[in-house]
Amino acid sequence: MDGRKTMGLKSLIICAAIAGLAVVQTLPSTEPGKPRVQEEIFGFPADEQISYYLQNARNRTPIFVPGKCADNEILYPGDHESDWVCDCRPGHVYYPQMNKCYPLFMQGFCKPGEYVDVMRPSMIVNCTTNVCSGQNMVPYDGKCVELNRHNRICKRVGRVYWVIGVNATTLELGCVPPDATTMLHRVNGEEGEDEEPIQFEGANRCSNGTRTKYEGLC
Fold this sequence. Notes:
The strands form 8 sheets. The chain has a two-stranded antiparallel sheet. A two-stranded antiparallel sheet has the order 3-16. β14 and β15 (173-176) form a beta hairpin. By secondary structure, the chain is α+β, with helices and mostly antiparallel strands. It has 3 helices and 16 strands. 15% of the residues lie in helices and 29% in strands. The longest helix has 18 residues, at 2-19. It has a domain at 63-188 and 196-215. The radius of gyration is 26 Å and the shape is globular. It comes from Anopheles darlingi.
C-alpha cells in the first residue's frame, strides 16, 4: 500500500511540475494527539524567463522584441492580461501557403519582377507584376516612385515631409507619416539589425493582413 501512495505522489509531482504549480503534501504529525500538518514540497513560477519588456502586461501597446517572433511579426496583446500573441506587423500580410508574413509592395515570395499585393475586395494575397524597375520602385498615381521616400509628391506638415508607404488600414500605397514607415524600414533590418524593442502605437491584431483576421478570429 505504501508503494502505491509513493507512486501516486510522484505522478502528482510530475503533473504539477509540467503545469508550473506548487505541490502541497499532507503529512502525519510526529507527535501523538496533534493534527496532521501540510508541508510544501516545491513551487516555481510558470515562466521564469519572461522578457523584461513584457513584465508590465497592463501596458497593452503592441511591441517588437528581438527574437520573440518570426520574421515580419510583432507581439500583440492577447485575450488575457499577461498574454502576448505574434502576428504580422502593420503594412504586412499573412500568406497561408507559406505560413509567413510578408511586406507589401516588395518581392517577398513572388518571382523577380513581381511584388506582394492583395486582390480587392477579397483581400486575397497574390503577386502583381511590377511595371517599374529599380530597387524599391513601385507604381503610384501613374508614375514610378520609391517606397518610403517623399518623391516630391507627399505633403509637408511643419518641417516633416510625409512619404510613400503602406497604409496599415487599407493596405494601399499612399502618403503616410514618416515615423511609421521609417520604423518598419529599420525593424526590417535595412539599416542594421535592431536589438532594442520598438512599440507600435495604434497597431491592431484584427487589421487587414494579419493572420488573426485571415483565420476569422476577430
